[in-house]
Amino acid sequence: MAKQNESNFAWLAASTILVGAFLLFQVQPVISKIILPWFGGGPSVWTTCLLFFQSMLVLGYAYAHLLSKLVPLKRQAWIHGVLVVLSLLMLPILPTDAWKPTDAGQPTLRILFLLLYCVGAPYLLLSATGPLIQSWFAARYPGRSPYRLYALSNIGSLGALLTYPFLVEPAMTSRQQGWGWSGAYVGYGLLAIALAVLLHRFLRAGSSDEAAGDSAAADSDQGIESRWAWVAWLLLPALASVMLLAVTNYLCQDVAVIPFFWIAPLSVYLLTFIICFDRPGWYRTRLYAPLAAVAMLLVSLVYMPTAVDTVFGMLGLQTEFEALAKNLVVNTLIHLGMLFVACMFCHGELVKCKPPAKQLTSFYLMISVGGAIGGLLVSIVCPLVFTDYLELNLAVLVVFLVAAALIIKDILEINAVVQICVTVGLGMILGIVVYSHWTTANRTAIVKVRNFYGVLVVREDATSDSENPLRWLVNGHTLHGLQQMGAGKRREPTTYYGRSSGVGIAIDQYRDGRPLRIGAIGLGVGTLACYAEQGDELDFFEINPQVIELANSHFSFLKDCPIEPKLILGDARLSLERMQPRDYDLLVVDAFSSDAIPVHLLTVEAIELYKKHLKPGGVMAIHVSNRHLRLVPVVMTLARNAELEHVLVRSAAEGKVLDNAAWVLLTESENFLNDPVVVFSAEEPTAEDQQKVSLWTDQYTNLLEILRPLE
User: Fold this and answer.
1) In terms of Cα–Cα distance, which of 589, 559, 564, 563 is closest to 576?
2) Which end of the chain has fewer CB atoms at under 10 Å, N or C?
3) Are residues 372 and 305 located together in one domain of the fold?
4) In the beta sheet, which residues pair with residue 471?
5) How far apart are CA 431 and CA 401, in angstroms?
């Protein structure tokens, strides 16, 4: 019977840790996706959520540490069991509409308070599960190492991340996900309470707290107990965390802010924890330190592809490295590979510093503090200190320097020739890394600003025509607008707004000599103001206050407009929901985020809201140009659901001023659809355009099914 009880405790401990870790990481994409539309749908929403989760992890580990150190073992079980029961009162985790922001101010603080209220208590107790139960395990089984349970915990976390984009997100609405997670948390609570009962029975059967504590102290694991070990416990996780968040930001800027691009880097990060903690022998400094140096070199070369092609050209070799570096798949894989090597390096060195089991909770607490410091740096400090995304550049440089230091330390006992060759090689690589990231961070710009919504850069090109220089506003890889600065050219529409574009045709043909009331979701540099005439009304909805500032200070579309456009600060959907119907003749949807319209602007509910603000027979113009996502079938599916007729208008690029543009025009007006210019400009949808896709709602979207074929 004693052996059976012993086996039951071990299995129940492993099951509770596995389920707790699964829920701990499954809730992250669930709740983040729910609140993403409320705060503009940008990458910073996810990094702010990660900051919250990392901070709560610190509190959870601190709770486990203090409970295990200050409270007798018998009372630990009771206290934790009671708190788990109380946390059930916070379910379900779904936030109400009362949490929707009423303006664009202080988004970071609002997200943190929202998450604290909705998931704070359950998340804290889930965070404490791993270290607390491992300390119980060490007391219950004095001769066995608890560290493999940490690897099991990370397996549960990885399972949660991998199942979300491929199983949970495609099959369930956001509301169903919230209720499903809440139900699973009740199951976790039952496991945790049952484990606490078993521990209490074991202690009551005759084992004393003191004996258990002594047994735990006698753990056979060997570790470093140096008073300086805590520095490594803190700084190595911090560096890995900075690298994780910086790579995530990079990927989300280029494609879209969707769970898949949150989860891929986080999965790589967790995989390195699993490998390093499950079997320390799988990590070798002599292997991963050189790999880290090479990985940092490779990603640095990606940031200077033209220089690489030039060097190979001088050697008589023709390469297409620049095209390769700009390829979405190759670029993503290089960054994820670099993240894997960097995290293996940091976490492998961390495991080499792990202490005996008696310091287990202290060790985990310092790891969580280090991770939170990394999150704090990327989410709070860097946007305040830097005007660009420099955290990735700095993290690459620091990882290389640490790896180089360990390589040099490792070769000190080898002959002088090898030492010289390796040191010179590392010096050359360091020069390339520094040059690459320095040039990336110091690209010529008139102005560069950064806030919660991203980095905005104003650049000017006068090389092609000194009398008519071109000025751009860019956010990451996304063009927000362009203006010709020459006399007589300033009111010419540019980029996706040319006269032959879908929106240009819609305005010119709908006007028919009468004033128009136009609403525009997304300001950019104010290009749409080119079409305004006396008597018109023009409303711009813009969530980023710095976009408004730059459009007024460095571009003249708004100043030169014959009317005074109305600038409405805040998320367009939330603003429209609070407004009385505006009876727009034309509503233009062109709000870019990471080269994709934020998904909450392309749902059934969004289209119904737009219809509410259109006058009968009005036109809705939705910009669907995109490098990576096929948005045309999404909009066409929404149009059919809303019983709106639609036409697709594509226009070709002209020099540097006009870009290839695709617009879908939605309307109930037969007169507009039968207009000869509209009929002539309309294009027959291709097979790709008519692809059958799911109907997007506020509760369900699926970007994986519209991802363009990998090239």
Assistant:
1) 589
2) N
3) yes
4) 460, 483
5) 12
The answer to whether position 452 is within a domain reads no
Query: Taking a C-beta distance cutoff of 8 angstroms, is the pair 166, 43 a contact?
Result: no
Q: Which helix (H) or strand (E) holds 682?
A: strand 682-683
For residue 113, give Cα distances in angstroms to 109, 502, 545: 6, 42, 22
Among candidate residues 391, 412, 440, the one where a domain is terminated? 440
Counting every residue written for the chain, the total comes to 711
For residues 419 and 411, the answer to whether their CB atoms sit within 8 Å is yes
Same domain? For 517 and 419 the reply is no
Across 58-87, b (16+ Cβ under 10 Å) vs e yields: bbbbbbbbebbeeeebbebbeebbebbeeb
Could you give the CA distance from residue 112 to residue 119 in angstroms, rounded to a whole number? 10
- Other beta carbons less than 10 A from residue 173's beta carbon: 14
Q: Which two tokens stand for residue 564?
A: 């005074």
Cα 577 from chain centroid? 27
109 burial (CB, 10 Å; 0-12 / 13-18 / 19+) is exposed
Provide the pairing of β-strand 614-623 with 645-651.
unpaired
Q: Tokens for 321, please give them.
A: 């490295």
Q: How far apart are CA 23 and CA 53, in angstroms?
A: 13
Q: Is residue 490 part of a domain?
A: no
Are residues 621 and 669 in contact, defined by beta-carbon separation less than 8 angstroms?
no
We report the CATH number of the domain holding residue 635 as: 3.40.50.150
Residues 420 and 552 in one domain: no
Spatial contact of 407 and 419, defined as CB atoms under 8 Å apart: no
Residues 514 and 421 occupy one common structural domain: no
Distance separating the N- and C-terminal Cα atoms of the chain: 61
Shared domain for 149 and 62, answered yes or no, is: yes
State which of 440, 467, 484 marks the end of a domain. Answer: 440
Tell me the residue type at 458.
Answer: V
Q: Is residue 473 part of a domain?
A: no
Q: How far is CA 642 from CA 426, 586, 615, 636, 697, in A?
A: 61, 17, 15, 10, 12
Would you tell me the crossing angle of helices 43-70 and 2-35 to the nearest 10 degrees? 150
Q: Full-prediction pTM beyond 0.70?
A: yes
- 92 preceded by cis ω (within 30°)? yes
Domain harbouring 261, CATH code: 1.20.1250
Give how many domains the chain has, as a whole number.
2
Q: Which of 269, 253, 251 is closest to 261 using CA atoms?
A: 251
Determine the distance from the C-alpha atom of residue 61 to the mean position of all C-alpha atoms in its chain, rounded to a whole number. Answer: 25
Its domain, for residue 643, covers 497-706
Same domain, 323 and 423: yes
Residue 129 placed within a domain? yes
Copy the structure tokens of residue 552. Answer: 């007024």
pLDDT along the chain (711 residues), means of 10: 59 86 88 79 74 86 84 81 88 83 74 90 89 80 69 80 81 87 92 82 59 40 55 89 87 60 81 79 86 90 79 74 74 89 91 76 82 85 82 89 88 77 84 80 80 84 73 82 88 91 92 91 92 94 91 93 92 87 93 62 91 93 84 92 92 87 92 90 86 85 70 48
Task: Residue 123: count other Cβ atoms within 10 Å of its Cβ.
Answer: 27
Dihedral angle over CA of 99, 102, 106, 112, nearest 10: 10
